[in-house]
UniProtKB/TrEMBL annotation:
<dbReference type="InterPro" id="IPR051680">
    <property type="entry name" value="ATP-dep_Glu-Cys_Ligase-2"/>
</dbReference>
<feature type="domain" description="Circularly permuted ATP-grasp type 2">
    <location>
        <begin position="76"/>
        <end position="452"/>
    </location>
</feature>
<dbReference type="Pfam" id="PF14403">
    <property type="entry name" value="CP_ATPgrasp_2"/>
</dbReference>
<dbReference type="InterPro" id="IPR025841">
    <property type="entry name" value="CP_ATPgrasp_2"/>
</dbReference>
<protein>
    <submittedName>
        <fullName>Circularly permuted type 2 ATP-grasp protein</fullName>
    </submittedName>
</protein>
<feature type="region of interest" description="Disordered">
    <location>
        <begin position="460"/>
        <end position="547"/>
    </location>
</feature>
<dbReference type="InterPro" id="IPR016450">
    <property type="entry name" value="UCP005522"/>
</dbReference>
<feature type="compositionally biased region" description="Pro residues">
    <location>
        <begin position="507"/>
        <end position="520"/>
    </location>
</feature>
<feature type="compositionally biased region" description="Low complexity">
    <location>
        <begin position="488"/>
        <end position="506"/>
    </location>
</feature>
Length: 547
């Protein structure tokens, strides 16, 4: 074996490449055969080419105010087709259940009356917005895009870590990772049948067009961004460009008489669907933060009147609450009459005094998370915490049990990662992306694999210094191929509106940066940076050990 794997030791978790020392699993055989003859110098050179290409194309991520190339490891993560079928079914199942839940709590509230979820869990959530009550999208879709975070446990089984149905981000890096990897490891691509991810913009555009208000046959779709100072701005610009729609800021839109229009050089143009990448709190200063300068006044009233569709819907964040997460298996049984395909990580609800006492006795063996935390902030991994940190945590849990959950510490699975000039095992998680067009939930065959780069680290999110890997889903054997055309991602039996498939792709250029934000640049820039939900989910989602 080449010195790349010299002293490579299997870690405490499930090693996804090796079933035993020096023995690659079947899914990794082609990759292992490619890496084995390479020298560490050659692989490092390829890795440097990868990073340089990202920087040249403007594929960046801001970490602590410093913008740099999004960290992509050169060793991909590979998932077998049979394993992916389980993930795909489980993610779609959760999206359907959460769709039904959101429609229910902002409507009749039957799930609360039946006691499946305690009313207090919903009404005390920081992201439950009464302002969204009664707003019913005409095609019933509130979760147009979802990102469901998964981990593999010690036995290699996928488990759900959390759901992201507000403004989940990171899919741009999925597409860019694939484009870059095809150039630096072409020999592996030639030997491996990998399902493509390039169809995502077309799927998203089709879902957004399907969500247009009643009577609109040729809807105008826009992507609403907080602006250039937001650390996920690259993604906003890329998706708008590849869908062939306008990228707008709040100041580009005006709402009069419940009609939303976009200011253009040719005058105002009606807008029918807004794919927003702005948090609820900043979206409409009439109903939320009155000081918001990055939102659109009157937007929520226009949505209530059925004149514009906001994707994802306002108020979805209650389904992201980490306490609500613990009820999702019950919601699947309640709404779908099915057993969950993917299990949650074992979770403790601390509002029960007996459960709280049990957790306080085991703090050094559990992982505790604030229910509305983001970017890995606030997580305490008991086994890595000092006595003083555990004492502080104990006081916080006792004072605010509703604000926390506790989970067992899962030894996340590991994938070889280039550290210096050697391959070393590092912990990973996975965020698959699902698109709901009202007829079906489509799960992109891949996802954002995030990797904790420091040795032993369990927090993988980018805002904590983590990196990413390209995620390869192996294609089905020819005899088992589904009707989906793997070259396009389109089902020939249901290709959708042909017009929706004509998604123009403009020349690839670095993402533009505006030199002059205009009047009010101070508060605009500040709010663009404050508005970090899309950043949180961009590789930044909840960072992770077992929670």
């Amino acid at each position: 074996m080449a010195d790349l794997f010299e002293d490579y030791r299997l870690g405490p978790g499930w090693d996804e490449m090796f079933g035993a020392p020096g023995m690659p699993r079947e899914t990794y055989e082609a990759l292992h055969a490619t890496l084995q003859p390479l020298s560490s110098v050659e692989l490092r050179v390829r890795a440097e080419v990868l990073a340089r290409a990202f920087l040249d194309q403007g594929i960046t991520f801001a970490l602590k105010g410093v913008e740099g190339p999004f960290p992509l490891d050169i060793v991909p993560r590979i998932i077998a087709a049979s394993e992916w079928r389980v993930v795909e079914a489980g993610v779609a199942q959760r999206v359907k259940a959460l769709e039904a839940f959101l429609a229910d709590i902002y409507g009749a509230g039957q799930v609360l009356a039946d006691g499946v979820v305690p009313r207090r869990v919903v009404v005390t959530s920081a992201h439950f917005h009464r302002e969204a009550a009664g707003i019913s999208p005409h095609n019933g879709v509130r979760i147009h895009v979802a990102g469901v975070d998964l981990v593999r446990d010690e036995e290699g089984a996928f488990r759900v870590l959390e759901d992201n149905v507000r403004v989940p981000s990171g899919v741009s890096y999925v597409m860019e990772n694939r484009r870059a990897m095809a150039h630096v490891l072409p020999e592996v691509f030639a030997a491996t049948r990998i399902q493509p991810v390039e169809s995502y913009p077309g799927q998203l555009l089709r879902a957004l067009r399907a969500a247009a208000p009643i009577g609109i046959t040729d809807p105008t779709v826009v992507v609403l961004t907080p602006g250039v100072h937001n650390s996920a701005y690259f993604e906003h610009a890329l998706l708008a460009r590849e869908m062939g729609v306008e990228l707008v800021e709040g100041r580009d839109l005006v709402c009069v008489g419940n009609e939303v229009a976009m200011r253009t050089t040719g005058g105002e143009q009606r807008v029918d669907v807004i794919y927003r990448r702005i948090d609820d709190e900043f979206l409409d200063p009439v109903h939320f933060r009155a000081d918001s300068v990055i939102g659109v006044a009157g937007l929520l009233n226009a949505a209530r009147a059925g004149r514009v569709t906001i994707a994802n819907a306002v108020g979805n964040g209650v389904a992201d609450d980490k306490l609500l997460y613990s009820y999702v298996p019950d919601l699947i049984r309640y709404y779908l009459n099915e057993e969950p395909t993917l299990s949650n990580v074992e979770t403790y609800r601390l509002e029960d005094p007996e459960v709280l006492e049990h957790v306080l006795d085991q703090l050094d063996r559990l992982v505790c998370k604030p229910v509305d935390g983001s970017g890995g902030a606030g997580i305490v991994i008991g086994s890595q915490a000092s006595d003083s940190e555990l004492a502080e945590l104990r006081a916080r849990l006792t004072a605010d049990p509703r604000g926390w959950i506790a989970q067992r510490e899962v030894a996340l699975s590991m994938v070889p990662t280039l550290i210096g000039n050697r391959l070393r095992p590092r912990h990973v998680d996975l965020r698959p992306f699902a698109v709901n067009d009202g007829q079906r939930v489509t799960v992109l065959p891949g996802g954002l694999t995030r990797v904790a780069l420091p040795e032993g680290a369990l927090v993988v999110n980018s805002s904590q210094g983590g990196g990413s890997k390209d995620t390869w889903i192996l294609a089905e054997p020819p005899s088992e191929l589904s009707p989906v055309d793997l070259s396009t991602g389109i089902d020939p039996a249901d290709p959708g509106d042909p017009a929706d498939l004509d998604v123009p792709v403009l020349p690839r250029v670095p993402t533009p940066r505006s030199p002059d934000p205009g009047p009010g640049a101070g508060p605009v820039a500040e709010q663009q940076q404050q508005q970090q939900q899309s950043t949180r989910d961009a590789g930044a989602g909840e960072g992770r050990s077992a929670c």
